[in-house]
Design a protein that fits this description.
By secondary structure, this protein is an alpha/beta fold. The protein has twelve helices and 18 strands. Helix 9 (245-257) runs parallel beside helix 11. Bound molecules: beta-D-galactopyranose. Residues 36, 71-72, 119-121, 148, 150, 180, 203 line the site of beta-D-galactopyranose (GAL).
């Protein structure tokens, strides 16, 4: 009996030891580019290499974007050994060649698969091949895996994603693990120990209504996010044409306030100056990448006028005033009160005194000149004002 217990303990120790995610990854929300929002299934080696080049030449890399991720449709079949096979017409040199190219640019490489039997676009997926696929990814030099949830039948989400987490760990290459089960099984409650980020909703589309509806589904999720484990409200649509420049500024500001992963989804090779200046606004990106890793909370909700608040490292904070109405709004903002306020997750932080701070407008790139603590602020329709309380 004693012997049995010892054997069981040893087995448990070894299984337990492999049952973890790589926990030194994604200390701040991952930043990069993903093919899906703009190109769907129309992916190829030429496209992906071009995007890697453009990520460097456009200044995106300097602004912090790092991962170049091919989404669905790179895979076409399995070979006689059940190894996953890339589409040879579209990826003639194979996936490792592409990964090497991306690494040679100082960037990281991401790929996509799915926990079901087929991906959402009907390509071969991971179910039953998790360990084999993880080894292929590690051999190719994959740094990031997005793992979808189509064709999963009666599979249990937590155990399906746990299998892939363990497979990635066993393959011995640090790979950021991005769960994409659309929030169906409340992954924020269980995915922190499985992956580095998890989708919280269905797919974004390139419209104001879609973006704002996703925002409204984030408001109770702040407490689940932090360094190494992020809520993912889906990828960016900035620059894809379905929203105005002002709306894209709003979309980008809100995603940064939410400490969302920042995966651009536009054509990086042909960006308008407006798109580029949104995606590379370093002062806004700094909110997203703040090392404290707090997601913004909805501090005041007046329907189509909301104030989101994000606590930052070193006792700083950011606020985003959102006018989601179709009319310009003029609002009276009490910066003294905002300075003192604390979000729910940060009751233990110090209330700030306005006199110790400069209030900086992160789109105007200017400090506010405040004669009094309260002042009137104009906010355009579908627009935001984003302020950072910077210590004097
Ligand atoms: C969806 C996923 C999208 C994209 C697509 C690919 O399920 O949410 O982001 O990956 O599948 O088929």
């Amino acid at each position: 009996m004693k012997k049995l217990i010892v054997i069981a303990a040893v087995i448990f120790f070894f299984l337990g030891a492999s049952a973890q995610k790589y926990d030194q990854l994604a200390k701040t929300p991952p930043m990069g580019w993903n093919s899906w929002n703009k190109y769907g299934c129309n992916v190829s080696e030429t496209l992906i290499m071009g995007m890697a080049d453009a990520m460097v030449s456009s200044g995106m890399k300097d602004a912090g974007y790092e991962y170049v991720v091919i989404d669905d449709c790179w895979q076409i079949s399995r070979d006689e050994n059940e190894e996953i096979v890339a589409d040879k017409d579209r990826f003639p040199h194979g996936i490792k060649y592409l990964a090497d190219y991306i690494h040679s640019k100082g960037l990281k490489f991401g790929i996509y698969s799915c926990a079901g039997t087929l991906t959402c676009a009907g390509r071969p997926a991971g179910r039953g091949h998790e360990y084999q696929d993880a080894l292929s990814y590690a051999r190719w030099g994959v740094d990031y895996l997005k793992y979808d949830w189509c064709n999963t039948g009666t599979q249990n989400a937590k155990s399906s994603y746990t299998i892939m987490r363990d497979a990635l760990y066993a393959a011995k290459r640090p790979i950021v693990f991005s769960l994409c089960e659309w929030g169906s099984n409340k992954p924020w409650e269980w995915a922190g120990e499985i992956g580095h980020l998890w989708r919280t909703t269905g797919d974004i589309s390139d419209s104001w209504n879609s973006m704002i509806s996703i925002l409204s589904q984030q408001k109770d999720l702040a407490k689940f996010a932090g360094p190494g484990h992020w809520n993912d409200p889906d990828m960016l649509e900035v620059g894809n044409g379905g929203m105005t420049t002002e709306e894209y500024k709003t979309h980008f500001s809100l995603w940064c306030m939410l400490a969302a992963p920042l995966l651009a989804g536009n054509d990086l090779q042909n960006m308008s100056p407006e798109t580029k200046s949104i995606l590379t606004n370093k002062e806004i990106i700094a909110l997203d990448q703040d090392i404290l890793g707090k997601q913004a909370e909805l501090w005041r909700n007046n329907g189509d006028y909301q104030i989101w608040m994000k606590m930052l490292a070193k006792d700083e904070k950011a606020v985003c005033l959102l006018n989601s109405s179709d009319e310009k709004k003029t609002v009276l903002v009490d910066f003294g009160l905002i300075a003192q306020a604390r979000t729910e997750g940060a009751e233990d932080s110090k209330p700030l005194k306005l006199e110790n701070f400069t209030v900086r407008d992160l789109w105007e790139h200017k400090d506010l000149v405040l004669k009094e603590s309260s002042t009137y602020i104009d906010i355009l329709p579908h627009s935001v004002k984003v302020y950072r309380f910077v210590k004097k």
